[in-house]
Records
---
Amino acid sequence: MLVAFAIATPNVNGQQIVPPPVVSAPAGKLRGSVEGKLHVFKGIPYAIAPTGSRRWKPPEEMPKWNDTRDATKFGPACVQNNNPSESIYYSKLASMSEDCLSLNVWAPANARNAPVFFWIHGGSLSGGTGSDAMYDGASVAQRGLVVVTINYRLGVLGYLAHPALSAESLDHVSGNYGLLDQIEALRWVKRNVAAFGGDASNVTIAGESAGGLSVMYLLTSPAARGLFSKAIAQSAYMISTPELKTSTFGDIPAETIGTYLQGKLGTSDIAAMRSMDAVAITAQSAQAGYLPFGTVDGRVLPRQLVEVLNRGEQAKVPILAGFNSGEIRSLRFLMPPPPASAETYEKMIHDRYGELADSFLKRYPSSDIPESMLATTRDAFYGWTAERLVAKQAAIGVSSFFYFFDHGYPAADSRGLHAFHASELPYVFGNADKTAPNWPRVPTTTEDKRLSDAMTDYWATFARRGVPTATGQPAWPAYGREHGFMEFADKPQAKTRLLPGMYELMEQVVCRRRAKGGIPWNWNIGLASPPLPPASTQCK
């Protein structure tokens, strides 16, 4: 048997103490810690991140270590720029390093063939860490799961594409290094999770925001196929993605972005970029306007996410996906400036959406322009993405579950942040007391605790068997023909047909842009939209 669990022994005062658990895994021996009925292992290196002069290469498999490795402290976060100190998403990092590819495990002490919940943190692919207190896996693990949280390379260090890097590659591609890290972490789990009591054949990938985007990348990447059996995407965004060498949908080619950045940094070549300090190049790249995204390279990411789903070529695994009613209330920078009047608003929409303008204005009326603009951006980014995921998975015959988080509480609502982006996370993880310093304080009322318990149960049971259930709570309807969903407001409520007409409208917008070519689908929606191309036979 791979697992070596410690036995309680008396100390000098006659009291029982529990020695730290030691696990003998294929990767090597690990000494963790005991937290209640859980065994916890932190900072486990799952791969080697090429650094310095070897920067911007795929991760390398970690060699087996011979001694027993201490796994009681989190590893350093990957190099990143901190959020502004006044941001609700700000949290102080204990340490950062370019050598940052580690993961953390929470496992029931008696786990045997337990489902595995593999969490990918958010942060715009430029920030975050698997050691964030809000992602503490204890509450989920107490439901009988093995929880894994990971670090992956971020920002320019994780996603830079460049012609010189493509020339070095055996596959003639570059970029996607952070995504390759995630895939390598999944491979590590496949090889080693049985030592912690996990079932390598029952792994659920899950993530929020950029973590949800990463889940979609993994769903569509051939390199990740067979490494997971279910997926959870919370507030994911299916925007158009730069392609390696071409500009099919108006995005600048990823290699061109890399060459441009080289010039902005004042460096002569890729060797000079590699000689820069990791913290410095991360900061200067962000100042130059570099935004990390996956690269459609034909190999790691074969096509645009939309196209893969349209062709039914994604991983055929059950999915749970959804979004929050107030996504943009904490992300207002994603919205354009408001117009001066209702008349101006309506004219701008008619100019941009043509014969679809009436449908648009019915959903997003001029009678309340601020709320309409919040809803427009929310739906185009997050709502359409979530419903598209469940609709396309249902279309290929796998279980699909849709949710809408609309829960508010006093500290958030008083700041105009009702159900804001990521506000479901403390409820899913059961960590109301572990949020960031500026996060609106999550209440500990009986009602909020009950809602959190229900959400954790739903997520955990979905990870266990592909169907979300919670004791004493409504049955969660599959998306199916009735477009079922679960609403999480004051309590869970099963409903059908969320925001009628929203999905169909956004489908038309994206489809027309794709049919015409040359127009991305991301921030350019609503008042920021270019004129919508005419109807296409492809979009009937």
Note: The domain at 36-332+377-500 is CATH 3.40.50.1820 (Rossmann fold).
---
Amino acid sequence: MADIFLNISLIIGIAFLVSFLMRILKQPLIIGYIFTGIIAGPYFLNLLEKESTIGVFAKMGVALLLFTVGLHLNPKVIKEIGKSSVILGVGQVIFTSAVGFLIAKALGFSSLTSFYVSIALTFGSTIVVMKLLSDKGEISSVYGKISTGLLIIQDLIAAIILFTISSSSGVDTTASLVFSTIIKGVIILGLLLLVSIFVLPKITKFAAKSQEFLFIFSLTWAFAIASLFQFIDFSLEIGALLAGVALSVSPYSSEISSKLKPLRDFFIIIFFVIVGSQIAISDVGSNIFSIIILSLFVLIVNPLIVMSLVGILGYTKRTGFMVGITVAQISEFSIIIVALGVTVGYLSSEILSIITMVGLITIAGSSYLITYSDKIYPFFSRYLGVFERRNVKNEKKKILDSYDTILFGYNRIGFSILKSFKAVSNRYVVVDYDPEIVSNLKKFRIPVIYGDVYDSELLRELPLRKSKLIVSTIPSVEANLLLIKTVKEINPKAIVIVRAHHIDDAMNLYKEGADYVLTPHFLGGEYVANMIKGFGLSSTNYKGEKEKHIKLLDERKRLGQDGPDVEKN
């Protein structure tokens, strides 16, 4: 026991040091955990000799991970994520797995192995993508919402695949056994449904009165259902996932998830450490060509598939690009599915080594792609027109002769701004790159142009020379800088109002020529809407307000205040 404790302590210490390096390199910590496993494995320190005991910790980590994933898979969620995400998610899984299967077969893998490999290459990492989008403040942007919906659909499909694998894990595949397995599955799912509807709400309501009691109940429920599924010859992984889904309809699901997160993170470290330790250096060396080809498929081909589907759905090429690079990695689900395939005897450990290495390469690569997507896009934008539907291109060209006022971005703030536009002029137009928003505005007969402020060609096609007031409610500093530069170059007399959430960003926008910067954290959209109504289209009136605002921001900065990271829509 003392040896095991010492080994775990050493493993955690190594994980900390490697994770510290990952933080410096701006990489997800999951990569650090896998590298920790390689260091702690048989090729170096060999700290995992007593793997049976440490392996229990790993199983607990997988169970808790899938349980918390299940907590976010509310059956009602499909209604909320939108038709586009459902079509995109299902289409992406079908096309990626089909192409991945053909590539795996071409690399010489058997049909069963190729199937597992193609599935592993299909799913993006919800944990990695959500963390990176959250860091950028892009979760609520149009592409962020589409990416989130896509990942949710992937998780649902992965759950079905896990259930399928676990239900066929026995050696005996006679018709009677398959039939009995299906019957057991249907019965247990029916019982779970009944319990989640009639029993769990009362228990969780009572348990929620005490935070500690809610925590211990959640653990009990997760491990009990996972153990039950393992007992009836399914996998504990699918049991833990369904235990989470059963609780997902509870009003306390988010609280349960936040309570379990620290415990989950500790045990999941052990899981990925063990996965790393199982990477055979010889397997990597002998399969380096396959690893490179599969990694390039995930990093390049998978995003191209998604970009094509996003374009077909009617979104701009920039939205397609941004969504595409969010799937340029494989997920923890991929590794779990392959590990389960190894456990039930369908795959060799060599395949786990290959997929884990693909995971390391693609997670590392996509992290940089997502983080610096705004800077990368301009280099490729001219070549991405093929991913835009022809009617989208034509829609962007349906531009009238002139407008007095132009609004970029119809969101919550934009709603107030648009009302003020109507008060000062009847010659106004909205520019937005969300097809659903464009469609809704058209229904209400509001003049709207489908386009992206990042599209410099669109900006130059707009009648900016005759416009008097241009407002952007888009919080992207890069987009607003491009807008200010373009407008001031074409029409120096135009009033330009843009949006920022940090004082330094606001001051930078003022320096580049903005006539006013909307800072929702200090002065909201209603304030600017009333200002527009009062000042009208005379540029002189805005100068005094600009000077007052700069003084306010300077004072706030001296007091150490700044705007928060907020949603970008």
Note: The chain has two domains: 62-383, 395-558.
